[in-house]
Amino acid sequence: FSESDIKLMKEAGFDTVPIQRFPENHAKIKDVVNLLEKEGLKAAVCDDRITKLYEASELPTQEAVDTAVQEVLDYYKDYSNITELIVCDEPSADKFDVIARLADAIHRLSPEDKVFVNLFPSYASAASLGTATYREYLETFCEKVKPDYISFDYYDLIGPGYTEYHRGGFVKNLADVTSVAKKYNTETRVIVLLTKHSDYTNVTQAEINWQSNLSVLFGMKALSFFTYALP
User: Fold this and answer.
1) At CA 62, angle to CA 58 and CA 65, rounded to 5?
2) How far apart are CA 182 and CA 169, in angstroms?
3) Nearest partner of 80 among 50, 36, 116, judged by Cα
4) What is the pLDDT of residues 37-48, one digit of tens each?
């Protein structure tokens, strides 16, 4: 998150940058938020005072959740470019109760902020989802959490070493999320592949466009690109 990196993000057309790598380093988070603000970019902040509650073995009380959320809001109160607080990535359904308490606190104490929760894609196992079906997973999330949006990541372009180049199922996953979002009157977001990592391919510009255009076609309201590291 150097100043030159952030200038590149702005030039590339991004508008919101998630800060997820160092949730325990609050001072560093502030530094990055400040750099983003100077370039006119928004920030989604992951702070361990919130994520520790999500990761706790027992369900925290609403009072404990409210206290932690208020502490985080007070800490960043001087920055107007923070638009989202990050709670978790790919939760099982058994975590929806604590997510609901965190979302409720954020919505009450800072109504202008959104709650970032990214769900599993449809190719996750039933054991990971914590429900019998993917549709049940999505609907349970909406019913319990009352989210600002349904967000999920889907990396369809698998790359060399596999029989099929495409994982398959991307279109159906988009359609399922759109259907559930319409039922619960909520927004949608999809995170797609940007750079090579793990078993995934180094996508071309055309493949980036393919992912993006399909996402728009199926009504996604926000589009994110994910990478583990700068290439």
Assistant:
1) 80
2) 20
3) 36
4) 999 999 999 999
CA distance 135 to 88: 20
Measured distance CA(199)–CA(195) in Å, rounded: 11
Q: Residue holding tokens 């009504």?
A: 219
Question: Minimal CA–CA distance to 10: which of 56, 48, 42?
Answer: 42
User: Residue 133 pairs with which residues in a beta bridge?
Assistant: none
**pLDDT tens digits, one per residue of 143-194:** 999 999 999 999 988 876 666 678 889 999 999 999 999 999 999 999 998 8
Q: The whole model's pTM is what? A: 0.93
- Strand blocks (E) in the chain: 16-19, 42-45, 82-89, 114-119, 149-153, 187-193, 222-226
**Which tokens hold the place of 1?**
């998150």
- Tokens 């990396």 sit on residue: 155
CA distances to 45, 81, 123, 209 from 181, rounded to whole Å, are: 24, 27, 19, 24
What does the alpha-carbon distance between residue 125 and residue 2 come to, in Å, rounded to a whole number?
A: 38
